[in-house]
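Example record

The entry below shows one chain as it appears in the dataset: sequence first, then structure tokens.
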Amino acid sequence: MKNLIKINVVALIMLISFNSFAQKVSGGLFIGPNVSWYTLDTKVAQNKGVKLGYMFGATMDFNLVENFAISTGINFNSMGGSQWYEHGVHNLTRQDLGDISLGPSSTIKFKMDYIELPVGLKGKTNEIGYMTYFLKAGVTPGVNIKARADVTVDSNDIITAERKLFNLGWHIGGGFEWSLSGSTRLLTEVVYTGGILDTDKIEVLREDNTSTNVNSKLNNIALKVGVIF
């Protein structure tokens, strides 16, 4: 009898703990478009255009107190952009193809896929009608899983050797959650992510015909639409 009582007490404690944890955690799925582009730290290489891409993934909030949470998740993010080179590019490596050097006024269109693990702080209002509004900020580390580029017109070359594996950005965003039924909510969010790390190893030619790797950071603005459970 005593053992049965102990088992019931332990089970009750576990159930209460699980319910308490469940109330502190919420998560869901999202998808949406993005616009991405490069910023560069030199005049010999410049951003030449944006890339329309997409992202999807899962999001999770660990609620600290009523109006603040640690926000994290996992994203697949397809980004890129175009870079223009005043004096050209030295020996760009393409998988299964020979190296290629590009002449003055060349442009390369990049197509980069990342797996990202954003983490940050999220502040939100109390529910107003059916709406809860929020702001968030944090960092977005990522790993490149595919690197392609139109080195020549629509060539879609694999340039894995020219990309850096790890990326890091900072993000800031906001949006709202619309209560549908029970704990189910519709998510709408806009997020800007600014690049911190250089994303490629490309050797850019200078006027004196020497080459250098310039600092090429990848930025994007994304619209996320999803469902929170």
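Notes for this example: The chain has one domain: 25-228. The CA atoms of residues 66 and 126 lie 8 Å apart.
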